[in-house]
Write a structure and sequence with these properties.
The protein has 230 residues and is an alpha/beta fold. 61% of the residues lie in helices and 13% in strands. α5 links the parallel β5 and β6.
Length: 230
């Protein structure tokens, strides 16, 4: 049973998430309304996953993520927010968030993201992936003209952008048609479960295809692969 910490300044949302996750074999170790309260809870208990909002009174989510990754590096962090502007996305990823989901994604998407993150995968909402891809492209164009980059989060993925030509021209050509299809769905921000449902195959089969894609492209990170294939 995974132990989960919930951090959000909306009490009703905290209660809803507690019900949803508790009914899906997860133990809620605490509910915090801001970052300071979350860190206080973690002094007395441990967890494997934290669902964190960004815009909260007191210590906000971005600052909390940085503290948590420094103090408790093994804890997985899923951002659950209504905001997907460039600054929030890049700051959250730069500080160590393992996933970034919008609150309107729905119960199934949240449960799917939790499962993916606990399985060691990075999960980004499709809208977030689109913003990040656009940001990377804009940054690469700017870097070509100035030789400088602005965001550490962009720097963390622009290596994949630099590899884009080689991926598409060489390794991408080695993928089977099914692998190309799945790679495209990853680039669109779909989770393994969503891909499995869309293609009418098992989630285990999707994982096998993704492992093969990783081996052929040489990129073993979902976010970098998605950005490179955009």
């Amino acid at each position: 049973m995974n132990k989960v910490l919930l951090v959000d300044d909306e009490t009703m949302l905290l209660d809803s998430l507690e019900i949803i996750l508790s009914l899906n074999n997860m133990e809620i170790v605490g509910k915090a309304h801001d970052g300071n309260e979350a860190l206080a809870i973690l002094k007395d208990t441990s967890c494997e996953l934290a669902l964190v909002d960004l815009n909260m009174k007191g210590m906000g989510g971005i600052e909390l993520i940085g503290h948590m990754k420094k103090l408790y590096p093994s804890i997985k962090i899923l951002v659950l927010t209504t905001f997907y502007d460039d600054k929030n996305i890049t700051d959250a990823i730069s500080n160590g968030a393992d996933g970034y989901l919008l609150k309107d994604s729905g119960k199934d998407a949240i449960l799917g993201a939790v499962g993916q993150i606990m399985g060691g995968n990075t999960v980004l909402d499709q809208k977030v992936m689109q913003r990040l891809s656009s940001l990377v492209a804009a940054n690469m164009n700017k870097s070509a003209g100035t030789g400088a980059a602005d965001s550490s989060a962009v720097k963390s993925v622009e290596g994949a952008e630099n590899d884009k030509v080689s991926i598409l021209d060489a390794a991408y050509g080695e993928l089977t048609e099914r692998e190309k299809e799945i790679a495209g769905l990853i680039a669109d921000g779909l989770s393994n479960r969503q891909i499995a449902d869309k293609l009418y195959i098992s989630e285990g089969t999707v994982k096998n295809y993704i492992s093969s894609i990783y081996d052929k492209t040489g990129i073993h990170d979902r976010v970098k692969l998605a950005v490179a294939l955009k």
